[in-house]
Amino acid sequence: MQIMIRVVGLIALSLGIVSSAWACSCAPEFRKFEKSYAMAKAIYVAEWTTVKLSSEIAPIGSGDYLEDVQFVVAEVFKGKRRAGDVVRVRSTVGMGVCGASVRNNPIWLEALPKPGYVGPPIAASLSKSWLIYEYADEPFELEYCSRSRPMNQGGDEDVALLRSHGRQVPKPKRPPRAVVSAGPNQSLEPTRVGKPPLAAQLQR
């Protein structure tokens, strides 16, 4: 199913005018794989286990709230995280903010409706397993401006890139050294390249 990111809060379609356009402004460079990989302090796949909601920091009437999520790391591509580590994420989610809800509520990732559909936005289904690009210390925020994504909504594509990106080219093996048996009047002591043995020099 195709999806689209919802970045506008309320859209008035009458007269083709956009009103109440509260939006999160995303810098294009943060969407590029190479830039995101270079800037991230850690990159890993993790599955969230608990979600707690709070409106403690939200202004009255804003509709924003705090989503406190606990993840468990499964696979690491960059950084000091290890499988089994517990990671805490705290994101401000709501209309016009950049935080991405792991439950997609409020909706930040929409399923693309079928042609002719008329109705409210359809929330895309999000897996509990995410690919996370970590840029700050815990508890950090999941933002939809970054490349952090649920595995079933693009995260798996980045995982394929990361596995390829992180693959080290094996060093070529050294050729086996030739073994020379010494004759009765021969020595196996190494000699310098380009110079005759010392005994030959003294005979000159």
Polypeptide structure, described:
- This protein has helices at residues 33-39, 155-165, 198-202; strands at 3-5, 42-54, 65-78, 86-93, 109-111, 129-134, 149-150.
- It has 3 helices and 7 strands, in the order βαββββββαα.
- 11% of the residues lie in helices and 24% in strands.
- The chain has a 5-stranded antiparallel beta sheet with strand order 4-3-2-6-7.
- The chain has 204 residues and is α+β, with helices and mostly antiparallel strands.
- It has one domain: OB fold (Dihydrolipoamide Acetyltransferase, E2P).
Q: What class, by secondary structure content?
A: alpha+beta
Helix content: 10-25%
Could you give the order of the helices and strands?
Answer: EHEEEEEEHH
Beta-sheet strand percentage?
15-25%
Mean pLDDT: 75
Strand ordering within the main sheet: 4-3-2-6-7
Low-confidence stretches: 7-22, 167-173, 178-182, 198-202
Give the oligomeric state of the chains in this entry, treating copies of one chain as homo and distinct chains as hetero: single chain
Number of helices: 3
Main sheet specs: 5 strands, antiparallel
Q: State the end-to-end CA separation.
A: 86 Å
* Highest-level CATH class: Mainly Beta
Rg, rounded, reads 29 Å
CATH architecture classification? Beta Barrel
Number of strands: 7
